[in-house]
């Protein structure tokens, strides 16, 4: 067992039964489990994916919840964190927090045995007899269950995690003054269909921005689109995949722009015909007719 505040083990656990993601899709999203090696205190949260931004976002949300940063976070060579070497985002995350992310050696179960036992604990104690309607429902039920789980008596520690965690966190560092970078980011020129992609889904944007460069960011919960720092779209992030997510306001605005374009086009097509009125003097000159010398025509009544 490590000293207070020194180490928190991190791992992903996958429910053995699929749950609804919405839009008639089922899956078993990863659950990030973080366990203190001193107090045995466990934290957890289901994540949309195991990609780097979501893993970092999950860690940051649980570190914020704890209100303290351990000296070390350990991972078992998860690809989104690093294999043999930390990914650049993970290394930057550790630097901002002032902590170390240690990648455990392959086939080294002793170094992460605690978190493995916690995963089994989740399966047998949390999942048993439960049903879930969505990932949000899963996280809500997990948040209610965790205080009960952390009230278990640990014989090896001669105490309960709920009681030992205060000693644990007193030895940890404070949260950094600046939040680490944990968002998915992308910059694209908004196409004519006015949708941008975040992970596997397409989200609508104000169509007045078509042709301009927009900045797409995504947290665990929300997708944002900005142009020159101004928010132009915001969507609740979907966990289901291959979706087209549309804001009705954007559809209405697109219809307005289409109507305006068609009206302008119609006005350009309606052109009044111009008929030139020829001067009769041109014909007189052509046929050498002198009006002044021509004999007068006298109308004779019959």
Structural account:
This protein has helices at residues 52-66, 88-97, 113-126, 135-149, 161-170, 248-269, 280-286; strands at 7-13, 19-22, 25-27, 31-36, 42-46, 72-75, 100-103, 184-189, 195-198, 201-204, 213-218, 222-227, 230-236, 244-245. The chain has a five-stranded mixed sheet with strand order 5-4-1-6-7, sandwiched between helices. It is built from seven helices and 14 strands. The chain folds into two domains: 7-170, Ribonuclease H-like superfamily/Ribonuclease H (Nucleotidyltransferase, domain 5, 2-Layer Sandwich), CATH 3.30.420; 184-269, no CATH class. It is elongated, with a radius of gyration of 35 Å. It is an alpha+beta fold and 302 residues long. The model is unreliable at 296-302 (pLDDT under 50). A hairpin with a 5-residue loop joins strand 4 (31-36) and strand 5.
CATH topology of the largest domain: Nucleotidyltransferase, domain 5
CATH class value of the largest domain: Alpha Beta
> What is the residue-mean pLDDT, rounded to a whole number?
88
Give the H and E element order: EEEEEHEHEHHHEEEEEEEHH
Descriptive tags:
elongated, alpha+beta, Nucleotidyltransferase, domain 5, 302 residues, four-stranded antiparallel sheet, disordered C terminus
């Amino acid at each position: 067992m490590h000293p207070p505040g020194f180490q928190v083990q991190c791992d992903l656990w996958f429910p053995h039964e699929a749950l609804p993601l919405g839009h008639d899709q089922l899956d078993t999203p990863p659950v990030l489990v973080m366990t203190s090696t001193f107090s045995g205190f466990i934290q957890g949260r289901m994540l949309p994916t195991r990609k780097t931004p979501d893993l970092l976002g999950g860690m940051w949300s649980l570190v914020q919840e704890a209100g303290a940063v351990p000296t070390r976070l350990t991972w078992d060579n998860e690809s989104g964190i690093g294999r043999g070497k930390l990914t650049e985002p993970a290394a930057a995350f550790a630097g901002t927090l002032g902590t170390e992310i240690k990648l455990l050696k392959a086939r080294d179960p002793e170094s992460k045995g605690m978190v493995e036992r916690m995963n089994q604990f989740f399966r047998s104690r949390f999942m048993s007899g439960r049903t879930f309607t969505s990932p949000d429902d899963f996280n809500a039920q997990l948040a209610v269950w965790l205080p009960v789980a952390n009230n278990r008596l640990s014989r090896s520690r001669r105490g309960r995690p709920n009681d030992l965690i205060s000693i644990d966190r007193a030895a940890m560092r404070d949260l950094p003054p600046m939040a680490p970078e944990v968002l998915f980011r992308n910059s694209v020129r908004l196409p004519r269909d006015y949708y941008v992609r975040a992970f596997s889904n397409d989200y609508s944007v104000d169509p007045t921005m078509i042709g301009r460069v927009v900045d797409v960011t995504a947290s665990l919960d929300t997708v944002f689109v900005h142009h020159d720092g101004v928010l132009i779209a915001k969507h609740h992030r979907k966990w289901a995949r291959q979706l087209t997510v549309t804001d009705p306001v954007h559809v209405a605005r697109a219809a307005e722009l289409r109507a305006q374009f068609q009206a302008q086009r119609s006005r350009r097509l309606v052109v009044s015909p111009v008929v030139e009125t020829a001067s009769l003097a041109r014909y007189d000159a052509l046929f050498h007719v002198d009006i002044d010398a021509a004999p007068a025509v006298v109308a004779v009544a019959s």
